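Q: Got a minute? One more chain.
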Amino acid sequence: MDAGQRSVRVLMFPWLAYGHISPFLQLARTLARRNFMFYIASSEINLASMRGKISEKESDSIKLVDLHIPASPELPSHYHTTNGLPPHLMPALKEAMDLCRPRISALLKTLMPDLVLYDFLHPSVPEEAAAHDIPAVLFLSTGAAASSYFIHHCFENHASEYPFPGVSLRESECPKSTGIKASDFDRLRECVTRSCQIVLIKSFREIEGKYLGYLSTLTGKKFVPVGTVFQYPETMKNREHDKFIEWLDEKVEEIALGLEESGANFILVLRSPERGKIQEMLPRGFAERVCERGMVVEGWAPQASILSHPSVGGFLSHCGWSSVMEAIHCSVAIIAVPMHLDQPLNARLVEELGIGEEVVRNGQGNLAVVIRKVLLETGEDSLKSKMREWSKRVREKGEEDADVVAVELVTLCERSGGMGLLPSNSVNGDGFFIYKTDRVNQTGLQGFPNQTVVK
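A: Always. Here it is, folded:
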């Protein structure tokens, strides 16, 4: 970046979980190539794990900022992350984040960003940004289908029927059982309401168009999909891999037996609260019986790299949204075993798209049946064939969504009066986007042919 160039400065506040931090970091990487400058604020323990994932070149446009979350006897600093956090301390972590308002205000005053991006558990962030006359935009790293279901119940009377019954929670999957509390719904509603004009969401319009439309109608905000913000496997070499198969609670034995019965070759990735305890949770003699065709990995595995390998024919997944989008990008059909939070809703969407099948846990070998179906079925109507079609559409689109996001954010900054950007001649004769400040003229974001960026 030339010394005279004026970047769009963005301060990010992801929730204190790497499953949330990672999409923020990937979005920062994508937009940094479009003349944006990012500051990502989090706890020191999360920042320590991020530093090795930002290259020297990226460090020019992506900076890490310590939130200095207050420690307490109940919540020492090593618990300022959801990784390894005992479940009963989750409310304390949210309260500790709420106590960071003075630090958030100080960062806004010191860094003077043009824009703030925040997560759905941070309703105080847009309040502080408004006090400093800085526009703040919510970025949801969950999919549009799951988000629309939860936001429907935040904004609509509970007697109002959700319009997409095919993607909804079953009676046994009430918010309590999925790990969602009433206070989280309050936080989500406040975060959506306080978002300035638009909401960014990790989604594709081609995949979730009707859900994006419903979200916009429901909230009065324009929901803008950012695409996959996918970290390509080749950029992950020689780094600590970011994705892991989530701990599958008491279902480990059921899944292991299903894999064994299916006869398929497999990699089984598990995470245990206690290091070295995985073998004790597997069926007796399992490792010996499957050693010729199966690999059991404790802790971490390079998920995106594995999914990209041509020999992988199916993905047994809890259906976290990032995992679903990685599977689509890599064209690997999904065997869905959802557990909690948004996972059951994502599994229903997977079935609706025809790119996978959810396992009905009936104790009668259904997992093995689904695995064999995914791996062995062929033809135009097979799950693998439909997944290839969706993957092709996603790959062909490339980073078009990121281009639109960049325009939306710059336009928002201009409308808020903070940058002096987007004059009337901001689209040149070649259809490329130019933005100017009072201090310098520069070519900013590029590659917007045939778009009108100023209304």
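A: Residues 422-455 form one domain.
Q: Perfect, thanks.
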